[in-house]
Amino acid sequence: MNIAEKDTYKTIEIAKGDTLYKEKGSKFIGFVFPISSEEDVKELIGELKKKHHTARHWCYAWQLGIEEVRYRVNDDGEPNNSAGQPIYGQILSNELTNVLVVVVRYFGGTKLGVGGLITAYKTAAKIILDEAVIVEKTINIEFQLIFEYQHMNKVMRIIKENNLDILNQKMELNCDFLISVRKKNAKKVKKYFEDLRCLKIKQI
């Protein structure tokens, strides 16, 4: 099933690193990071280049987004499609998004050839992803509810019956709630609130 057709997605919550794969003297060190923007990628790659400043290559792949996915691969001086693409293949096979996988290579003096490089980068990426804790999250939609305090019980009943999360609330004469609803339930929940006819509901 395409990621866009689901209301869940897989990612990792905690960075993991320093897994080692060796091939003919070369060392391939794997890292995986949760990311939320391309700025995260630049920052994390910069940190790894400082930490492993004597390495030869810092090859990586990332994927961002849940319903509109974007990604990038980088061979960082290795032959075309011998590093970034095999790393990205492991992101895809684990069905992950909002994730960056980097494999740092220390050259061991023996050339591996394109086939050898593909295997090495793929294996290093697989090892780090096998060690990472993968979590499944729901795609949620946020709604703003505006209503008079006297209708609080009616609103709270719907919230409790549907196990909705209140992200923010202001309770005065006019109440203002920000709620989070799982995507697959959003239409149904929105109709429950609209049927009350005592509040304004707006998707954020």
From TrEMBL:
Pfam families, per the entry: Impact_N
Example GO biological process: regulation of translational initiation
Protein name (database record): Putative YigZ family protein
TM stretches of this protein: none
Native organism taxonomy: Bacteria, Pseudomonadati, Bacteroidota, Flavobacteriia, Flavobacteriales
Superkingdom, taxonomy of origin: Bacteria
SUPFAM superfamilies registered for this protein in UniProt: Ribosomal protein S5 domain 2-like
Family: Belongs to the IMPACT family.
Residues covered by the Impact N-terminal domain: 24-127
InterPro entries named among the record's database cross-references: Impact (IPR023582), Impact_N (IPR001498), Impact_N_sf (IPR036956), Ribosomal_Su5_D2-typ_SF (IPR020568)
A GO CC annotation given for this chain: cytoplasm
Gene3D superfamilies noted in UniProt: Impact, N-terminal domain
